[in-house]
Design goal:
Radius of gyration: 14 Å
Largest sheet: 4 strands, antiparallel
Shape: globular
Helix content: 25-40%
Oligomer: single chain
Order of helices and strands: EHHHEEEHEHEE
Number of strands: 7
Strand content: 25-35%
Number of helices: 5
Length: 141
């Protein structure tokens, strides 16, 4: 089931975000991501429309929308490859007619996922925080 984020979900969402981020972005130091936990908790999650995928009272994934930007979409590494990302994406597309996102060029698995979901590459740019190339992608229904 996908439902709106509740404040009591914060620790689970942050745990999923950190573990999945470190796994997907091994080319950026773990310390960088750990330094962003407080920003996620106090700024990014509260400023976004966030939804969680919950099954048997366990949060297994989430996404956050900030306007038409898919600011985050993560599935717990323990539950990846089970269609949860597809279900989260379907919900995000239901909520927005246009979605844009950035993904690191060094993360081909996510790029492939977004392409399969109908996103197209718009441009590439360097992320000022990490120095790595990000790809801007867009989906229009």
């Amino acid at each position: 089931m996908i439902r709106a984020f509740e404040v009591s979900d914060m620790n689970d969402v942050l745990d999923i975000w950190l573990r999945a981020t470190i796994e997907a972005h091994s080319f950026v130091g773990r310390e960088f991501w750990e330094s962003k936990i407080e920003d996620m908790q106090k700024t990014y999650i509260p400023a976004s429309d966030t939804y969680v995928f919950i099954d048997r009272e366990v949060i297994k994934g989430f996404f956050s929308l900030h306007g038409d930007t898919l600011a985050a979409m993560f599935v717990s590494p323990d539950f990846q490859g089970r269609g949860i990302g597809q279900q989260l994406m379907a919900k995000a597309k239901f909520l927005r007619n246009i979605l844009n996102l950035t993904v690191y060029k060094e993360n081909p698995r996510s790029i492939d996922f977004y392409r399969k979901c109908g996103f197209v590459i718009i441009k590439e740019e360097v992320d000022e925080h990490t120095g790595h190339v990000e790809i801007l992608m867009e989906y229009c229904s």
